[in-house]
Amino acid sequence: MEHRLSQRIEGQLPILVYKKGMPVGTGKIRDASRRGVFVTTDYNDVRLNQAIELAFRLPEIADGQQTLTAHVVRRSDNGFGLDFDGAENNARAIFALILWLNEHGHATHDGHQSHWEIH
Asked: Looking at the DSSP assignment, which residues form a beta bridge with residue 74?
């Protein structure tokens, strides 16, 4: 049985995965809480306790790209779980992410799934 300290909000928000400031993969936030996120992605070059940065855009917010740092706490075939504890993050960005996922669920602002590309 899994025990969570905070409620997870499901969603499908496209993200970029960064390692040491360089974009290395794309994916989607499958669920999030104020303590962490689960990212679905084909990118699997991560190890437990490794620091990862995520970048995302919330379409209704004019602040542009948001960035969060987290540590890998779980790996699976389709992604990885990240924990925000011990990382310097903007609490507003985490709150905005949770609020956006809660309001928009599985679709982007125009009702279609969107994606990121690494150039």
From this structure: 81
Residues 6+ apart with CB under 8 A from 7: 33
CA distances in angstroms from 37 to 2, 62, 83, 111, 113, listed in the order given = 15, 23, 7, 22, 19
Give 4-50 pLDDT, tens digit per residue.
456 788 988 999 999 989 999 999 999 999 999 999 999 999 999 99
- In angstroms, the Cα distances linking 64 to 7, 25, 58 are 26, 19, 8
pTM over 0.85: no
Hey, is 39 helix, strand or coil?
Answer: strand
Domain ranges, ordered by start, for the chain: 9-103
Fold of 9-103: Thrombin, subunit H (2.40.10)
Torsion angle of alpha carbons 17, 100, 85, 55, nearest 10°? 20
Q: What angle do CA 20, 25, 29 make, to 5 degrees?
A: 105
Instruction: Supply the Cα-derived Rg of the chain in whole angstroms.
Output: 13
Strand partners, 70: 52
